[in-house]
Amino acid sequence: MPFSVAVLDETVYGQLSSERATELCAAAFSACNLDVNRAGEVSVALVSLSVVRELNLKFRRIDSPTDVLGFEIDGLYGEMAGEIVVAPEYVGFEQAKVEELVVHGALHLAGMEHGEDFAGSEMAVVQEAVLRDVGTR
Question: Least buried of 114, 122, 129, 131, by fewest C-beta within 10 Å?
């Protein structure tokens, strides 16, 4: 079965299709030299600020909303690779920024990290290249 991403939109965003999310995640995985054809299922959940705040508190012990969270489940090549949780409201529901967050989350699922200095990280360079490749930039 070909790689695909399911989108669960619990917000009023309504601008991210499963096809576009699949394209974004596949581009991110490919940029990390991963075999997209072997990748497990990925889901993208679009949630409210209150939901992402609760998740941030529960899993990171940070009591504030954030833009994106990534949860690895079975590993990239497992049945369920992981879930990317995005709060579109955090970026003013701007389509390009929501797509950037999906790519950011996918890069985390692919194993990339950035530490405190995202702008100076290799992940920032890869993210920018992916966003250009998929036409977001």
Answer: 122
